[in-house]
Specification:
The complex is a heterodimer of chains A (about 220) and B (about 800). Chain A has about 220 residues and is an alpha/beta fold. Chain A has a single domain, classed as Rossmann fold. Chain A is about 35% helix and about 30% strand. In chain A, the strands form 2 sheets. Chain A has a 6-stranded mixed β-sheet, with helices on both faces. By secondary structure, chain B is α+β, with helices and mostly antiparallel strands. In chain B, a hairpin with a 2-residue loop joins strand 19 and strand 20. The radius of gyration of chain B is 34 Å and the shape is globular. The complex binds adenosine-5'-triphosphate (ATP) and magnesium ion. Adenosine-5'-triphosphate binds next to helix 1 of chain A.
Chain lengths: ~220, ~800
């Protein structure tokens, strides 16, 4: 599905290069469920953003679904992103001014779905996550777990082949966390969605098929479960 | 998608009520001003635009140069039209016509002269050519035949209905109409122009009535022979053939003039020439006026219109600046939404369009508000907005189009930059919970400061201008003009049905009114009224001193009524004739008299006769402050002169102030007894003087409005920005307070930046304002000083207004309990 070859990311700090990612190479097959772990500041989020094409590496080669991302123009990259990727954030990042329904609907708008299609798809999704009753509420009126559910529903609404999740359960209690993890496992198994998540929890990492450990911007270990 | 944008836009407006409010108020003011000014400018610029080949139509006018002074006359001498027809090949049509001053119109079938047909304006003598040049819609009759025969008349349908209210159009044809004494027959009816036009004539008497010579008075009125006399009623319009240069025609006219009226030695130093005035200049050229024999046709000033445009543009700019400032200040607030939208697949363009939609919506609301406000504004400014200007959207597609374009333009100017800034935020930075990157933040802060300074500059500029104009008006209206202005009433006795006996009766009746102190019989009072010059010479030994002397006519009471100081000699006596004159000090100096006394007994050569100087007055202002004091002589004129003016000095009013009203009522009664057929008209002298400065007064009113509105808009923006920045700095303020800063120190800290911005604006504005002021003052010979305090007052005033605007918010932030603001972090 995707492959990183000798990817580095550094910031210029006072004339010195400060490496966040240092010569990272990584292959992820379709259908995998990868967990990225590592201490704070080791570069996990940066790696995930690069995989998701939200951030650009300083060096290296990046292939995604057969495309050489490092050679693509901004526009093409955005198109690729739109077609394949769904993002889930630790801080949910719902749009405060939009209702649950509108938040979930928004990606469809950017994919140019017609109004009636959008209605049907969103209704399905609300059903599946059992949040129909909440559809007219604003994010501020939901609990953290509910907000993350909406965030995931929103990420899934365009049927992405790859879900990238940066500490999706970081702000949730353990029961809510388990629910989200089981949801991911189910998506991975039944819908064959590739998932890459960043997590600090061994237990959550256990839901995946592979654990990658980052240390100081380098891959320390990669263990298949 | 648009629906989604609209929803989020409305929710955002609601969430930021204050900013929305500020933006809408500012935009509404700017847009209303733009609409009103568009109406005015559009009105004045669309006069006589509909004539076929209008760009080839010219009016021939006359310039007279005498020494270095140029006189302008909108008419030409009578024989010119005939000469052009025969001798200038480049002219396609030559159309002479002659205005007739306010004739009384009599419809003979009625027994009595009806009141409403008195003193008609819009009556001209014209031939069939007139209708060849200007195409009217004919209801009855034909442009070719209706005015060929003498003693025929063509009316507009409106006017015909006034004369014959009970007749159908076809019944009117053949009716007789009498203009004063001239009997004519109605032969045609035309529709008045539907479009705006300065050609507002409605009674067209056939020109052949005058030119065939059977009516001696009319024949001399149109003067077909003398190249020496130019009357402004004698109008001449021509249409050039395509590609004929007006300059060339002007040269040919000069040749014709030289041939027919060669310069003679006694006309040394003077010259006469013809100028082709383009039709589209008619409405604007104040030198020639439009037609001085029709009422209600005042020239529009292009300078004023230009000034109005500038004001509209500035007000709109100020409102746009508010929008830009407030929106970019909020950028970090919205950055999260933007970042999230980007991770959900939004392209930058989609975001830009989203923000532009928001701006558009806001502008649209402001436009709708403006549409409601505009009719009221027109009422408010009815004093100096022409009554022809209407705001009636369903019937004015051009205004609808203007509004659409204005909405789009404002949306673009106000919305584009914020949209670029907002949409530029990168999703990664936003999602990492860093707000906008530092670099951009400073860039948009610098922009915000620049724009704020720009607002202050505009507001300061208007403020300085307003103070100066007010100062100048105050100066010219209140300075010592050398004569008394108040408690003087002027009435003019009529032209017609008047004689010396009647005037004497009126004079006696007026003198019997207890409130009247003194009456002078003469011509124009000082300063106001027309001016008449004559060339005089004075023989100083062998040297001949020639001067252009301004003549005033009055009687023995003239100097007393106006309290003009006599420096030497004596006042006029009833027995004096044109052989005695009182001169002003300026002229005394010109003829070489150092002391006024020396001029007494000198003889001045005027029109070949000697006139003795019997008195010298102190200089008094005979012109508005636009020009300097010129040599002047006061000559005796008696009650025997027709149409003389009475200047009545009133006794001072007592506290309850009813005397003058009673006096006016008394004058009216006296007048009605002597002149029952004429309306009584009077004018207080001081008001007549103030009227001389109506243009400056209008400028002043306009500037005051522009200033108030620009300050209002800027201050609203400033208020919004202050609220925003103090909110941003709540934590910093809290920490400083905990560390021991006092409220005063905090307020100083928070106001320092604002003060610097105002200072910068002041430094930038002052030189420009100074240049503009000097330019404006150039049109006055007599000017007030451009004092330093005008600038100081403006700068100080602006500073105080700005500090008060932001101060409330700043002090509130400074006295807030720091524990609260810090805990929430
Ligand atoms: N703009 C920047 N300039 C300099 N250094 C940066 C910048 N952005 C990120 N970094 C550095 O990159 C490193 C990796 O950041 P990253 O967010 O990827 O860490 P992480 O592994 O996700 O940590 P955490 O578990 O705390 O989320 C950090 O040390 C951070 O200081
Ligand atoms: Mg992280």
């Amino acid at each position: 599905m995707l492959s990183l070859k000798n990817i580095s990311k550094y910031y210029q700090i006072g004339g010195n290069k400060s490496f966040v990612l240092n010569n990272v190479s990584l292959e992820v097959e379709e259908g995998e469920f990868v967990s990225i772990m590592g201490p704070s500041g080791s570069g996990k989020s940066t790696l995930l953003n690069i995989i998701g094409m939200l951030d650009e590496p300083s060096e290296g080669y990046h292939y995604f679904a057969g495309n050489a991302v490092h050679q693509l123009k901004e526009k093409q990259r955005a198109a690729l992103y739109k077609q394949y990727v769904g993002f889930v954030f630790q801080a949910y990042h719902l749009i405060d001014e939009l209702t649950v329904y509108e938040n979930i609907e928004t990606p469809l708008i950017y994919q140019n779905y017609s109004g009636s299609d959008r209605k049907a798809i969103v209704a399905d999704m609300l059903d599946r996550f059992q949040i129909v009753g909440k559809k007219d509420l604003f994010p501020a009126q939901l609990s953290g777990g509910q907000q993350q559910l909406v965030g995931i529903a929103r990420a899934l609404i365009t049927k992405p082949k790859l879900i990238l999740a940066d500490e999706p359960t970081g702000n949730l209690n353990s029961k809510q966390g388990i629910e989200i993890m089981e949801l991911f496992a189910k998506l991975n198994k039944e819908d064959k969605v590739t998932i890459i998540q960043v997590t600090h929890s061994e237990k959550n990492a256990g839901y995946g098929s592979r654990i990658i450990n980052l240390l100081d911007g380098k891959i320390d270990s990669s263990i298949k479960l | 998608m648009i629906k989604n944008y609209l929803i989020i836009a409305l929710r955002n407006f609601w969430r930021n009520k204050l900013f929305t409010f500020i933006n809408i108020i500012g935009l509404s003011i700017g847009i209303s001003a733009a609409i009103v000014i568009y109406l005015i400018v559009n009105y004045d610029f669309t006069f006589d635009k509909f004539h076929k080949d209008g760009d080839r139509i010219y009016r021939v006018v006359s310039n007279f140069t005498y020494q270095s002074e140029i006189g302008y006359n909108s008419g030409v001498c009578g024989p010119l039209a005939g000469a052009i027809k025969n001798q200038v090949p480049g002219v396609e049509i030559t159309v002479p016509f002659f205005g007739i001053y306010g004739p009384d119109v009599i419809i003979p079938e009625k027994e009595k002269v009806s009141e409403k047909y008195k003193k008609q304006d819009g009556v001209i003598l014209a031939g069939p050519d007139y209708f060849k040049l200007f195409k009217y819609e004919w209801v009855i009759g034909s442009p070719k035949t209706a005015l060929t025969e003498p003693n025929n008349v063509v009316l507009t349908t409106d006017q015909a209905k006034r004369y014959f209210p009970s007749l159908q159009y076809h019944e009117m044809i053949g009716k007789v109409i009498i203009y004063d004494t001239l009997k004519v027959t109605l032969t045609g009816l035309i529709k008045p122009f539907k479009q705006k036009s300065d050609l507002t004539f409605h009674d067209f008497i056939s020109l052949s009535t005058a030119t065939n010579g059977s009516n001696k008075a009319l024949f001399s009125y149109v003067n077909l022979t003398s190249w020496d006399h130019t009357n402004s009623v004698s109008q001449l319009f021509i249409k050039l053939l395509p590609d004929v240069s007006p300059k060339l025609v002007e040269k040919q006219l000069k040749q014709i003039l030289l041939k027919n009226n060669p310069p003679t030695p006694d006309r040394k130093g003077s010259s006469h020439s013809f100028v082709l005035q383009p039709l589209n200049d008619l409405h604007f050229n104040e030198r020639f006026g439009i037609f001085d024999f029709t009422a209600n046709s005042s020239v529009a000033s292009k300078t004023t219109l230009f000034g109005l445009l500038v004001i509209a543009i500035f007000l709109l700019l100020l409102a746009c600046i508010n929008f830009i400032n407030l929106t970019t200040a909020q950028a970090s607030k919205r950055a999260k939404e933007i970042g999230v939208r980007k991770t959900m697949g939004s392209s930058r363009w989609q975001l830009i369009i989203q923000f532009l939609t928001e701006t558009f919506l806001l502008t649209l609301i402001a436009v709708l508000i403006s549409i409601v406000i505009t009719p009221n504004l027109l009422k408010l400014f009815s004093n100096f907005i022409s009554s022809g200007i209407k705001f009636n959207l369903p019937h004015q597609p051009n205004i609808v189009l203007f509004l659409v374009l204005l909405t789009l333009l404002v949306t673009f100017i106000a919305g584009f930059y914020p949209a670029i800034i907002l949409s530029a935020s990168k999703s990664v930075t936003v999602l990492k919970n860093q707000s906008l990157s530092n670099n951009r933040k400073t860039r948009s802060t610098i922009l915000r400061k620049t724009l704020t300074v720009a607002q202050f500059i505009i507001a300061l500029f208007f403020l300085m201008g307003t103070i100066l104009v007010a100062k100048q008006i105050h100066y010219v209206l209140n300075k010592d003009l050398g004569f008394k202005k108040d408690a003087i009433v002027t009435i003019s006795t009529p032209w017609k049905n008047n004689n010396q006996a009647k005037r004497q009766v009126l004079l006696n009746k007026l003198y019997s009114l207890p409130q009247i102190q003194l009456i002078s019989v003469g011509e124009d009072p000082p300063l106001t009224g027309g001016e008449r010059f004559t060339e005089v010479s004075y023989l100083d030994g062998k040297k001949e001193i020639k001067s252009n002397l301004l003549l005033k006519y009055g009687d023995k009471n003239y100097l007393k009524v106006f309290q003009i100081k006599l420096l030497a000699g004596r006042d006029l006596l009833s027995s004096d004739t044109l052989q005695q004159m009182i001169i002003n000090d300026t002229y005394a100096k010109i003829i070489g008299c150092r002391y006024a006394q020396d001029a007494i007994g000198k003889y001045i050569d005027m029109d070949g006769k000697k006139s003795e100087v019997i008195g010298v007055t102190a200089d008094f202002h005979e012109h508005s402050a636009h020009s300097i004091i010129k040599p002047l002589a006061l000559l005796s004129i008696g009650i025997d002169k027709n149409n003389s003016e009475f200047h009545l000095a009133l006794k001072p009013q007592s506290a309850d102030g009813h005397e003058w009203k009673t006096a006016i009522a008394g004058m009216r009664n006296a007048w009605k007894e002597v002149y029952p057929d004429n309306d009584f008209d009077y004018e207080f002298f001081d008001e007549a003087i103030a009227r001389q400065y109506y243009r400056e007064q209008n400028t002043s009113t306009l500037l005051t409005w522009a200033t108030s509105l620009s300050i209002l808009i800027s201050c609203l923006g400033l208020l919004g920005l202050t609220i925003y920045t103090t909110n941003q700095r709540t934590k910093e303020i809290g920490v400083r307070k905990v560390l021991g800063a006092s409220v005063t120190q905090l307020v100083t800290l928070l106001s320092k930046e604002l003060s610097l911005l105002i200072l910068l604006a002041f430094v930038i504005t002052t030189p420009f304002a100074w240049i503009a002021m000097n330019k404006w003052m150039q049109s006055f010979a007599d000017r007030t000083a451009i004092s330093w305090w005008i600038f100081a007052l403006s700068g100080g005033g602006m500073f105080i207004i700005a500090l008060i605007t932001s101060g409330f918010q700043t002090v509130k932030a400074a006295i807030a309990n720091p524990v609260k603001s810090l805990r929430s972090e």
